[in-house]
Amino acid sequence: MVTISLDEYGEFEKNENKPLFIAGLIFDDLDKDDEVLAERARIKSYYKKAISDVENTLVESGEYTGSELMYPRDLHSNGNRDRDRNVIKPVKLKISETLSEFIEYGTYNQNPLKGEDDKELPKRKGMYHLFAIIKSADGKKKLLSENAGMLANDEWAANRYFHMASTVVNRLIFHNPLYPDGHASSINIDIATRATGSTRFMDPELRQQFEEQAYSDNIYNQNSDYGYYKIMTPDIYRTLIAQEMVSSDKINVKIDKLNVSSIKYNANRENMEFLYLSDSICSVLGYRLYRYNTCADDWLEDIVDRVKQLNPQNENMVFGYDEIDNYFSKSWNCYENKHYYEALSVTYDAMTKEGKFAEYYKKTWFPYIEDAIKDNISPEDFTIGVNNLEELLMVNNLNQEKSLYLMEQFESMADKVSLKYKSKEMMATALFKLYNTGVSVFSYIGAPATALEYYKKCKKYAYYVGTDAMFATNNKLAGCLTDAFEWDKALNICKENIDNYKAVSDIKRKIWNEENDADFLDEAKMISQLAGLYALKRSNEAEKYFRKALSIFEKGTANYKITQSYLLHYYADMNMQPEFDREITDYLDGKNTYWQMFGYITDMEESAHSLFSVEYAIYVLIRGIFYFHQDEIDDVFWGRLCNIDKIIYMKTGSRPSGHPWEITYKYLEIMAVKRNDDKAVHRFALLKSDCLTRKGTLISAIEQFGKAEAAQYEKNFILRDSVTEKLAEFLCDKFDILKNRKFSDDGNVRYGELTEYFTFMYR
Fold this sequence. Notes:
Blueprint: E1 2-9, E2 21-28, H1 35-61, H2 81-105, E3 107-108, E4 111-112, E5 127-135, H3 159-174, E6 187-192, E7 194-195, H4 204-212, E8 217-219, E9 227-232, H5 234-247, E10 255-261, H6 273-286, H7 289-292, H8 296-310, E11 317-321, H9 323-336, H10 340-351, H11 356-376, H12 379-392, H13 400-418, H14 424-444, H15 448-460, H16 467-483, H17 487-512, H18 517-536, H19 541-552, H20 558-573, H21 577-587, H22 594-603, H23 614-628, H24 635-642, H25 644-652, H26 661-674, H27 678-690, H28 697-714, H29 717-734, H30 747-755
Parallel strand pairs: 1-6, 5-11, 6-10
Antiparallel strand pairs: 1-2, 2-5, 3-4, 7-9, 8-9
């Protein structure tokens, strides 16, 4: 059985820059009989001992002449300033000095505690976990939006506390990372109620909010005019718990006792011990937080440290009342329901978020989910995850870094989970798909050598998959060789693949006695890939094969648009302006001005199966402007281009990242040079350097060549020559086919030599 006890710190009804948190404890009796009763006795004995020591010290000093100190009265202020200074302050100081030892060992000054009969209490058999949730500076933004009604808006009445308290109850009872389903046999709950201060002294606007939400004004007693509002009562907590039981389908959670009451510090109140302890924990965690630091980011760090100091040997839980916690909740719920792919997908999305609270979750809670998935995934779940990963690679607006993250997560589970498969065929098929995604994702980030390693892994399991799957992987092999600058070898493989695929398709048509559009579609993709190789070689054959592929694809489909974008890059690289201008208007569905085109791309709703990939559509648009239409860009449109990253962030919530943004920013940087916009030059240079978090050898080379290009346009030939010298060495070192390539010592000549390798979509 576990006992959960909570208290709070701060004035939740005020919008001030001061710490707000709910904190407390979980006491796990490890299913030992009567351990909870014994722990209550230990807590009581601990406080009595601390208060007694304080009294002895005060008496010995001669500075205190008041009444005898008593438990539990002298644990808490009653508003008397002299008493606060002379009694409460030294008691709290003594508790802060000794609380960690008690929580960790159940002792006081390294001595066992004694009960009412002066006999030594039994040694603790259970253990503590501490808990805290602290509000960030922004809190949960969606609850602060203009559209949030008065019952939802965090800044109305007591809504903030209600939202935080309900989050805590749901997290600790139903979605507890330390106690997944079935790991807590039963639960005791000790929670402090909450009420406002006197309504007589309340801000009139705040009081009006309480009245509009139909709060009842309560009188402290018949002889008092002290009015207040009850915020969290037993009825509210009972409703919250029952509602979550039903909504999360966890009706089997066993709650043995629900104690929701105001913390009273008089001797005749029973069963307050865990609430007293929660109150002390909140006091220690909140002590002088605001005095030492002035922002929630620092308070979070301090509370994490203080929790660890209080309970260093056991696991604790510190969370944030922040948007990042919504991601954790969603990911954890997916994990609980064994939707592991979705859990990891949400985890990656969270990893792109910024801020101290997000960074804390990235280091603490999202790795916790990753490890939990690795420990619990079954062959069936692994197969489902790999299938979902394979489908992810088929979408047009692929997030390269997300696909890489997911692939690496599932690969980290492969060795362990493969031993659990009962069918070798199912295991082999799953691993083929996993390593096949590895070929793709490492190709996407420009790491051809690594992609080739995954191709070899695929071949081990090729026997267990169909010919279509192996053809697709062979196409990826051609892509790996392309990105390794082995263009002639890749060209031959592409041609062989097309010939072999036609032969297999003919056999299939004879067997089934019917045409299959899917065969023509796959063939068109191979032709498009062949055209891309010709484009890299700047061969006139490229346009012919691009047109051939387009004639097979259905006009306006995603595959058509992708191949059309490749053709546009070929036209730009070959300086074919009339052809480019005609094609981009068709590509962007009739938009014929660059202002219209830019707005069309940035306004489009991007989903998994969108016709466009926004980053690639922007890439081809900016490249077209750079090559052919820079003089037509006015200051207003240029201002829009200078804010392109902010426009994307406002739409998606994430900063533009990954290839090909480093190329797009390069073109914008050079355009800024030509416009003498030094501020934009500096800004795009920074964006260019920061947008790639994972990059392979090819992308690194493309990035370096982009620096040389920018230096060339800036006429900074010293920088250009320095960059190209290092780039030439890098190419010879990293790419086998270029190991013996001798680049010129002359900077102008060397730059010209390098442009032969950085063609088509490599620039």
